[in-house]
Amino acid sequence: MNFKIFLCSLLLVAFFSCEKEDSTITDVPQAPLAVKEADDQTLASPQRGFNLCFDLLEAEDVATINPCTTSFPLGPIVETLPFSHFATHDLVNELNDIFYCHEEFSTCQRAFFPQEICTITFSLYDTKMFAIPVPAYTYFSGAIVPNISNQILQYFACEMTDYGDQNYNDYRIAHVSFDQDQLLCNTCGDGIGDLLYLRATVHYYIY
After folding, report:
1. Residues 60 and 12 both lie in one domain
2. Are residues 83 and 24 in the same domain?
3. In the chain, helix, strand, coil percent, each to 5?
4. 128 and 96 share one domain
5. Distance separating alpha carbons of residues 133 and 194, to the nearest angstrom
6. Distance of CA 134 to the CA centre of its chain
7. Which H or E element spans position 126?
8. Residue 21: which region, alpha, beta or left (left: phi > 0; alpha: psi -120 to 50)?
9. CA 87 to CA 199: how far, in whole Å?
10. Across-strand partners of 183?
11. 175, 197: one domain
12. What residue numbers bound the domain in which 31 lies?
């Protein structure tokens, strides 16, 4: 009887020893496989992502802008327009329509995947003149004549292309959008702002 117990004990010890060795051998290849998978992800990540950068340039006075030396094939604006975005048809909307999907100022007709996307904001401002009987803006008024509208149009086209040429070796303008903003004065009882801004937000694809 004692001999049978002794023999069973030996068999159990041998069984558990083999099972432990098998599990140890099975665990060995797991580490190299995990390392290889991590390496593959590292190599692929630069192809899937890109860097981002942002800048808000100092606003320029619309009264002092210089005429653009280059004439871009944009527009032209041929009618007198209000400035305010509350109007049904105004300068801000007109500029958005002109730059939208333009071959020189958008990538809606396809572009290569960039290494970096930079968003730069260009701004013009107009100062309210506290004239009698009603204070009014000189340029960003309720009736902007085509000559002024086209000068503003060409100014923004010049600024965004000059900025790209001076700061990037290889780039495409991917998208341009215009909006307006007001800087409200603290002492105005009627809440009317004394500075009015026209902004162009430009997305550059950098290669």
Report:
1. no
2. no
3. 40, 25, 35
4. yes
5. 16
6. 39
7. strand 116-129
8. alpha
9. 17
10. 195
11. yes
12. 2-46
Peptide bond just before 32 cis, omega within 30 deg: no
Closest CA to 158 of 62, 64, 65: 65
Global pTM exceeds 0.70: yes
* Whole-number Å distance between alpha carbons of 149 and 82: 10
Q: What's the pLDDT at 193?
A: 61
> Nearest 5°: CA angle at 116, between 112 and 119?
110
Domain count, the chain: 2
pLDDT of the chain along its 207 residues, tens only? 544 444 444 444 444 444 444 443 333 333 332 333 333 322 223 445 789 999 999 999 999 998 898 999 999 999 999 997 566 789 999 999 999 999 999 999 888 999 999 999 999 999 887 766 777 888 998 899 999 999 999 999 999 999 999 999 999 999 999 999 988 765 554 545 688 999 999 999 999
> How is residue 62 written in tokens?
């619309």
